Each structure stands twice: as C-alpha cells, then as structure tokens.
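Appendix B. One record, verbatim.
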Amino acid sequence: MHPLLRLAGQDDETRFEGPFEILTLAGSVTPDGAHLHASISSAQGGVSGGHVLYGNHVRTTAELLIVGVESLRLSREVDATTGFLELVARRHEAP
C-alpha cells in the first residue's frame, strides 16, 4: 500500500511508494473523530512519520490497543489563540 501522511510543517499530503510497516501509531479518538500520528518504515529501513490522513489502507494486519478512561470525556474545541481544534479532557463522573 502507499501510506499517506502530512509531514511536520507541511500543508500538503505526502504519498509514499511501496510497502511500509507501521512502527508507532499514537493519538486520540473522540466522538469528534480521530487525530493520529504514525511512524512508518520502508523495506529498506527508512523511517518517516507524520499526521495520518484519511485514505490509508492496511495490507495485512494492524494490531491496535484502544483504552478508554471512564473518568474523562474527550472532545475537540477551537483554541482561541491558534484557531485549531485542540483536544480537551474534562472530568466525568460515571453514573
């Protein structure tokens, strides 16, 4: 498959050619969507990383562990300073 990432400081996507392996995948999943970053390795051992964009496909398997925190509610809200949607964590009392 051809991984699709947005590299640091770039506005446009970068499509990598050839098979790659996921080395790391980190981020958050909220009711507002996912915000993920990955590092990937080519068959020659070259490593790249960036913001994971929509449209990536897994060729065989990807093992993920997703953990929820019952005492927190995650959302994304516009930051008044940056104008970006930023992660917000609020304490939540379980019923």
